[in-house]
Input
Amino acid sequence: METMNLPVGMYEQKNYIDELTEKKVTQYVSFEPKTKEEKKILFKAMNNPVKHLKDCINMKVKIQNVYCEVVEMTDNETGHVQVAPRIVLIDDKGVGYQCVSLGVYGAVKKLFQIMGTPDVWDEPVEVMVKQVNRGVDKNILTFELV
Output
């Protein structure tokens, strides 16, 4: 029997059928959607957010909710697989701003430590999206409280 040469990390021991109904513990959602409209907002944030956070540098975003999941990223040259946080900031109008960024993850973590999680906020938290240079060819996406 001939075997296929697939990139390292792809399709290895993957059980797609079991994953369809598996409850993921590698994700965080700051709200429990109850209405159909809230469920649509969450699905869009999870599946296809409207904006990329990197395109919103120096723009303000009013964060209402946060979605975060762990994703695998494969280096095309080496085949090395890494995991990273994929974060979607959901604004007060239900628009999602996505990124895969340790800088934004760190900022969200600090935001939660200081302000609590979005489920306890009285109103959306306004932030300014920033890009910080950390050496040659190393830019980090983050945000500041406004």
Q: What stands out?
A: The first strand starts at residue 27 and ends at 29. The two ends are 61 Å apart (CA to CA). Residues 102-115 form the longest helix (14 residues). Residues 32 and 38 are 8 Å apart (CA to CA).
